[in-house]
Amino acid sequence: MVPVVFFVLILLTGGTSSESVCSYQDVVDYLNLTTDNSLFKLTRPVLDHTHQTTVQLDILLYAILAVIEKTQTFIPFLWASMQWNNEFISWDPAQFCGITQILIPKEMLWRPDIFIYEMVQKDDSPRNPFMQLSHDGTVMSEEGMNVVSTCKMDIHKFPFDTQSCNITIGSAVYSSNEIRLFPSSNSSRATQFSREVMQTQGEWVFLHLSITRANFTLNDRLWEQLIYTFTIKRRPLLHVINFLLPILFFLSLDLASFFISDHRGEKLGFKVTVLLAISVLLLILNEILPSMSNQTPLIATYCIVIFALMLLSLLETILVIYLMDTDSQRRLKNDQEDKQEKVKTDEEKKRRSCCSCICKASETETEMLPVTEEVQVNRCVLSRESHVLLLILDELKELMKTLSLHLGSREEGGGRPVLWATRINRVFFTFYVTSVLTFLSLIFYEWTC
């Protein structure tokens, strides 16, 4: 009877007592994991030095923090997962209440020296202090990294460009005979996971992530690399609104200035103002684009050609105004000469009439009565007043004619310079419109193809 009762008590209390004595510390004590245990920290964790340590990597793009064209810098935030096997570690989960995994500080175990070749700045983001250790010796380390890396950018189609930036991962001291690198996910799965965990993209849109393996030989040793290529595309709306459209509007204003009269100074001042506005936008573009590039950016070609066309339009306006002023001065000079000749002729006629009057007066002086002399004097006074009025009328006509010459009214016609100016204006306007339409068609085709 006593053995039966004892067996029942064991059955009732056995499970509870086994759970109460199991803890993660029991596993740590069993493995003898301490911060000063050189067995787990100093050397590669293999029982035979000929064994290779297989490291599986998985990198996801968590956010695109910045892309700086001026310094050609790509700054993503990556979530990296790294997994390898430690041959010195194993335990039976059945002996420790089914514990299959524990978390331990990273300082307790050896870790592969995996680094990023393109990284140019130390990562100051918060670190994950723990690693996950499995009962079969599998070690997994996960960490977020703020990577500041170099990226060779092609800004030929800025702001409609697509960039591909590489993150090359490899070991610094272990060759392929000691460490083998393998990606945990293929390109399609890594792209899908990155899109699911993506938090922010900003100006850029993430397209896809491709993973390739590469080998190179150095000092008669073969080294392995994993290359993660991130393909991103710029959102061009901001640059189109703030840069491309204003230049196009200024070009439209320059085209509209052809309908301003060439005889006024406002047209020349208007064109100079528009040209200065384009110059300010070119200074802004110089701050955006990097100083070195393999090809001239299309946006630079776009600005320079439009600037050159507007400069050519300004020079054409100066030439036309010069021809107009030359013709006006010539006509004014001819009118002044005609006026002087007319004045001389009038003075000569007046002199002759005065002489004839004096002669007639001397012949009839003795025969004239006092009443007749008074009438003759009144007639002379009236004749002089009418002559003065005629002179004033002639002066007003000359003044109106001079004013019309300065305004350069085309209704009155002009000489050969005016004719040449009119022809140049028509031909250049046709050339200008044709050149602008052709250039814009070609540049937008290059941008979108």
CATH topology of the largest domain: Acetylcholine Binding Protein, Chain: A
End-to-end CA span: 93 Å
Mind telling me the CATH superfamily name of the largest domain? Neurotransmitter-gated ion-channel ligand-binding domain
CATH architecture classification of the largest domain: Distorted Sandwich
Give the low-confidence spans: 1-19, 364-375, 409-413
Helix/strand/pairing class, anyone? alpha+beta
Number of strands: 11
Q: How many structural domains in the coordinates?
A: 2
Q: Give helix and strand order, one letter per element, not per position.
A: HHHEEEEEEEEEHEEHHHHH
**At the first level of CATH, what is the class of the largest domain?**
Mainly Beta
Provide a short characterization of the protein structure.
The protein has 449 residues and is an alpha+beta fold.
Descriptive key words:
7-stranded mixed beta sheet, alpha+beta, Acetylcholine Binding Protein, Chain: A, 2 domains, disordered N terminus, 449 residues, 22% strand, 9 helices, 11 strands, 4-stranded antiparallel beta sheet
Description of the structure:
- The chain is an alpha+beta fold and 449 residues long.
- The protein has 2 domains: 28-235, Acetylcholine Binding Protein, Chain: A; 238-364 and 383-449.
- The chain is built from 9 helices and 11 strands.
- The chain has helices at residues 2-20, 24-31, 38-41, 187-197, 237-256, 266-288, 298-363, 370-407, 416-448, and strands at residues 53-68, 73-85, 101-105, 114-116, 130-134, 138-146, 149-150, 162-171, 179-183, 204-218, 221-234.
- The strands form 2 sheets. Strands 1, 2, 3, 5, 6, 7 and 9 form a 7-stranded mixed β-sheet that branches.
- β10 and β11 (221-234) form a beta hairpin.
- α5 (237-256) runs antiparallel to α6 and α6 (266-288) runs antiparallel to α7 (298-363).
